[in-house]
Amino acid sequence: MKNIVKKDEDKLFKKALELGCKLSEMQGYHIVDKSLPQPVIAKAVYLFLVQVRLLSPLPLDKTNGPNIKHRLAIWMKRNIDSAH
Length: 84
Description:
This protein is mainly α. It has one domain (6-83): Uncharacterised protein PF16691 family (Four Helix Bundle (Hemerythrin (Met), subunit A)). The protein has three helices and no strands. The chain has helices at residues 6-26, 38-51, 65-83. Helix 1 (6-26) packs across helix 2 (38-51), helix 1 packs across helix 3 (65-83) and helix 2 (38-51) packs across helix 3 (65-83). The longest helix is centred in the N-terminal third of the chain and has 21 residues, at 6-26. The radius of gyration is 12 Å and the shape is globular. 23% of the residues are buried. The model has no long low-confidence stretch (mean pLDDT 89). Pfam families: DUF5062 (PF16691). This is DUF5062 family protein.
């Protein structure tokens, strides 16, 4: 898989948050609150996707904002690629 360009990573990350939030709501988990900052929502979506086994977990020492953002962007890119 090619490396994701920073601009593309930002777009993929936003799409991953949208899709992750929709999936969590379909499962009965409401994790989106407009008052929460984006890093908190990203971590909640990441943890949800790991819990439902749609995403492999990061090592505990690498579970931080940039790594979660990158992992979600890669997950979204794989979903887009598999849909085509």
